[in-house]
Amino acid sequence: MESSVTIQDKKSFISWFLGEFRLKKRESTWILKYLLNHQEILENVHFVHDANLCPRGIVMSSQCTEDKPFCFYKNHLETVDAEKTFHDIRLNKHESLYIQLNFKNARQNALYAAVLEENPFKDELIPEEDSKIAEGILEHTLREYEKNECLKMIDDALDRHDKEAFRIWADRLEKLNINN
């Protein structure tokens, strides 16, 4: 993934961040300082939300949050061992590395927003529970619509004294009520 954020912008942001916040885990500070001094790695760094969804992601938290201090995710495995993370960063300089920083008012911070990129691994699909609720509402709405249509057709059949149409629509309404 090619970054739309320049290396200089990333460096400026990391420098600002390190000056403003204390991270819960000192190794997080070391990693960010290491990135500042290694341009070839910084080229492949992407600041994102939900780094845990990425094939190679780090979540670091400042002391002013309730979030967990540090976690490294690689191919759906996770570790809190910052030394293993540092080793992986050094060995895989040319692989994309996705970083999520948790700090006070991060979502409202203009400097963070300037370096944030869209997470290509974030699934934008509706969560399964929400999908089931929506499906249930849709099914209920369709059943109610069909019932109302049957009632209209029954009324129409009664107005025309059409016994056959009345029986067809009444049977259909009964089946809808039974399946409810």
Automatic annotation (TrEMBL):
Coiled coil: none annotated. Belongs to the UPF0302 family. Pfam families: IDEAL (PF08858), UPF0302 (PF08864). This is UPF0302 protein QR721_07130. Transmembrane segments: none annotated. Residues 137-173 form the IDEAL domain.
